[in-house]
Structure formats: structure tokens, C-alpha cells
Amino acid sequence: LTFPLLSVTLLVSFGSSMLYGYNLAVVNSPAEHIKAFYNATWSQRYGHGLAPGPLTLLYSLTVSIFALGGLVGSLLVGVLVARFGRNGALSRSALLVLLAGGFMGFSRELGSPEMVIVGRALTGLHSGGCCLGWDQPPPHGSNLRGFLGLMPSIFICLGVFSAQVLGLPELLGKDRFWPLFLSVVVVPASLQLLLLHCFPESPRYLLIERNDICGATKALHRFLGTPEVQDVIEEMQEEQRSLSSMEMVSVWQLLRERSVRWQALSVVVLNAGMQLSGIDAIWFYTNTIFENAGIPVSQIPYTTMGTGAIEVVAGLIGCFTIERVGRRPLLITGFCAMGVCSAGITVSLLLQAALPWMSYVSVACVVGIIAGFCMGPAGVPFLMTAELFTQSHRPAAYIVGGSLNWLCNFTIGFIFPFLQMSTGAFCYLVFCGVCLLVALYVYLVIPETKNKTFMEISHIFA
């Protein structure tokens, strides 16, 4: 049972996470072209161009509204799954991407910046709506738990890298191609839509949540390729009986319950910290950061692509070592590396006027931030959210962690350009402080959860 279902999980995760990563980085390369389009359209409508402040505000909204869409989508996941099932929810979510691609692809032809913003919001809605699992992760003690927990972060890195490659001047990085560049999202969404129809609905969802024994049996026949599925059906029915007697905890109850207070606080710190660490500023505004660091404009796209390749390698290292070294070392090392490199960017920017070679230090620090993030903080917080709670508390914990994740993503995407304009090189010290404080919290409070049950983890917290 495990191999086919996990294969489907990885397939669905691949498509959704690739789209998420692509949408994170796709606005980086064509930033100046999009701003020029906004300015020209505004001039045609009102007879004058946009001042630098309002133009920055409009572009920041374009970048960050993706996260607001993601927040709405993540809050609608439960309703969508209850009504349409996992397969149906993912299929309908993919249709949003096709609509978003149409909006962004024809925005310049129709002279409408609003279509770009709406398209970004719809892609965010899709990414938030895909925050659902096909089936439960392997149980406590499984050596697949950490590996599969970090696989989505690998796919996100691949999506970011794809956007960086397609953004090269030789491909879609030219001014006339930026609407096409934004609308490329329709390709993986179409593939996902086609592939989803090749698979039946999740057997576990059909039996436990819909009480459809016949449908679950047929789905298992297709997954396993054997008529002998009665033992699996009985196991699922036993789980269904245990869940039916379990009272699910609301978000408010989770936050008020003293017995899990430190676990809830840990979810808040990890999920907020991973976004406030500055990684979204790096992904959204890589070209601007390198330009401020003094990298020649002609070399910036290739330097950016190099960082994308490194983040994929770093993610693979974290994925294949998490079950050996554990969660805590990856988190502490990752956040410390990000903090030190954020401080390094500040120092290099302050000294680059006197020491021209400091621009290369800036590049190395950006690479260090990305590598540190992808090795641990990119995926471990999501994994630990599941590991710190029993099934009765887990949905509420996911809502808390996911909402904070999207809100902090929006905050960084929206305010970073203004923070950079007002504080210059010192803006990275904010990220340095966040990263080091989160690393200290993990070191002092959060126990190692590798191969431990919830009761063991709860006892350590107590």
C-alpha cells in the first residue's frame, strides 16, 4: 500500500510545489519591465507617469499579493476537500492557474496592470489551496518521515530554479516576453490537471471521510493491482472508529490549552521565523540585491541562476541527511548560517566602495542564506508541526502555522523595498536578528523529534 500512495503523494506535491517555487521567483527577473509597463500605462491613462514611491508601492503589491491569495486558499482547504475530495480540490485549484495565466499573459495587450495583480492573487490562491496531503505521512518512527517531509522543499527549489533559467536574456528575460514568462505557469498546471485524472481519489479519504467502502475498495484495487485488499480496508475502518471518537480541537482551544502551550509557541516561532528570516526578500528581489551589491547588470541573471542551482543541491543534502542528523541540528545550523550571512551582506555593502571585491562577498552571503534555508528551515517547520501534536490537535496547528507563514510572506514581500530604501545596507541586520533568535529558541526549547512518538515529545516539553 505504501509505495503507490506515496508515489502519488510525491507526484501531486511535485506539481504544486514547483508552481509555488516558480511563482516565488518569476517576478524577480522581469521587475524593471513590469515597472516600465505600469508607468507607461499610468501615463496613457492620466497624462503623467508614476512617482518612484507609488511605483514601488504598486510593484510591491504585485509581488506580495501572491501571499494574500495563499492565505485565503489555505483557509479554504478544509471546505474544498470536504466538498470535492482531495483529487477534486486539486483539479479545481489547477483551473485557477489557467485563469491566472490568461490574465497575466494578455495584460500588456489590454493595457491592464490590474490583470497582472489579479493573476498573481489567483496563483497564490492555488498555492494555498494545494496545502493538503494526499494521505497521512508515515507514522512516528518511520525512516521515511523526515525524507518525505522535506521533499516539497526540494520541488520548491526546482520551481525557483526553473524561473531563474527561463528568466535569462536568451530565453524569456527580454522586455517583449515578460507576459509570456509570467503565464508559463499554465504548463505545469495543465500537466497536473491531466495527470490527476489518471488516479482515483485517495482510498483513505473515501473510506474515513466519506464512508464509501465500495469506492475505497475500487481505488485500492487500482493502486495495488490486486483484488486482495480486505486487510487494508479493515485497518482503515479501525482508524475511522478511533477518529470518530476523537474530539477535534479548534484554533482557539489549541492556543488556550496549557498542556500544549510550548508546542503551539514553537509552531508560531518556526513558521513566522522561516518567512521573517529574509528568504522571501532574496527570492523576490535577487536582481535588485545583486545590483546594489555592484554586480554588473549583464552578469546578474547568470549569478542568480547559479544561486538557484546551489539551493537545489543544499535542499537535497538536507533531505538525505535529516534522518541521520535529526531536525534540531538542521534548524539550528540553517538559521545560524542565514543570520551570519545576513550580517555579512551588511558589512560587504558598507565596505564595497573602498574594497570592490566585497561585491563577491555579497554574492557568497546570498548563496549562504539560500543554502542555509534549503538545508533545514525550508521544510523542517512543516514536518515538526505534524510531529508536535496528536491528530486531534494537528489540523488547528496547521491552520496557525500556515496562516502565519502566508502573513509573514506578504509582510516581507510588501515592505522589503521600502525597508531597503530607508535603511540601506542595515536592513539585513533585521533578518540577522530574527534568524539568530529563532536558532536560540530551537536550541533552548525544542527537543529532537526524530523517531519519537507524540507522548515522548510531550513528556520532554513538560
TrEMBL record:
<dbReference type="InterPro" id="IPR005828">
    <property type="entry name" value="MFS_sugar_transport-like"/>
</dbReference>
<dbReference type="GO" id="GO:0046323">
    <property type="term" value="P:D-glucose import"/>
</dbReference>
<feature type="transmembrane region" description="Helical">
    <location>
        <begin position="425"/>
        <end position="446"/>
    </location>
</feature>
<dbReference type="GO" id="GO:0005353">
    <property type="term" value="F:fructose transmembrane transporter activity"/>
</dbReference>
<feature type="transmembrane region" description="Helical">
    <location>
        <begin position="57"/>
        <end position="82"/>
    </location>
</feature>
<keyword id="KW-0762">Sugar transport</keyword>
<feature type="transmembrane region" description="Helical">
    <location>
        <begin position="94"/>
        <end position="111"/>
    </location>
</feature>
<keyword id="KW-1133">Transmembrane helix</keyword>
<feature type="transmembrane region" description="Helical">
    <location>
        <begin position="146"/>
        <end position="165"/>
    </location>
</feature>
<feature type="transmembrane region" description="Helical">
    <location>
        <begin position="117"/>
        <end position="134"/>
    </location>
</feature>
<dbReference type="GO" id="GO:0055056">
    <property type="term" value="F:D-glucose transmembrane transporter activity"/>
</dbReference>
<dbReference type="GO" id="GO:0042383">
    <property type="term" value="C:sarcolemma"/>
</dbReference>
<feature type="transmembrane region" description="Helical">
    <location>
        <begin position="264"/>
        <end position="285"/>
    </location>
</feature>
<dbReference type="InterPro" id="IPR003663">
    <property type="entry name" value="Sugar/inositol_transpt"/>
</dbReference>
<keyword id="KW-0813">Transport</keyword>
<dbReference type="Pfam" id="PF00083">
    <property type="entry name" value="Sugar_tr"/>
</dbReference>
<dbReference type="GO" id="GO:0070837">
    <property type="term" value="P:dehydroascorbic acid transport"/>
</dbReference>
<feature type="transmembrane region" description="Helical">
    <location>
        <begin position="330"/>
        <end position="351"/>
    </location>
</feature>
<dbReference type="InterPro" id="IPR020846">
    <property type="entry name" value="MFS_dom"/>
</dbReference>
<protein>
    <recommendedName>
        <fullName>Solute carrier family 2, facilitated glucose transporter member 5</fullName>
    </recommendedName>
</protein>
<feature type="transmembrane region" description="Helical">
    <location>
        <begin position="177"/>
        <end position="196"/>
    </location>
</feature>
<feature type="transmembrane region" description="Helical">
    <location>
        <begin position="396"/>
        <end position="419"/>
    </location>
</feature>
<keyword id="KW-1003">Cell membrane</keyword>
<dbReference type="GO" id="GO:1990539">
    <property type="term" value="P:fructose import across plasma membrane"/>
</dbReference>
<feature type="domain" description="Major facilitator superfamily (MFS) profile">
    <location>
        <begin position="9"/>
        <end position="450"/>
    </location>
</feature>
<keyword id="KW-0472">Membrane</keyword>
<dbReference type="InterPro" id="IPR045263">
    <property type="entry name" value="GLUT"/>
</dbReference>
<comment type="similarity">
    <text>Belongs to the major facilitator superfamily. Sugar transporter (TC 2.A.1.1) family. Glucose transporter subfamily.</text>
</comment>
<feature type="transmembrane region" description="Helical">
    <location>
        <begin position="357"/>
        <end position="384"/>
    </location>
</feature>
<keyword id="KW-0812">Transmembrane</keyword>
<feature type="transmembrane region" description="Helical">
    <location>
        <begin position="305"/>
        <end position="323"/>
    </location>
</feature>
<dbReference type="InterPro" id="IPR036259">
    <property type="entry name" value="MFS_trans_sf"/>
</dbReference>
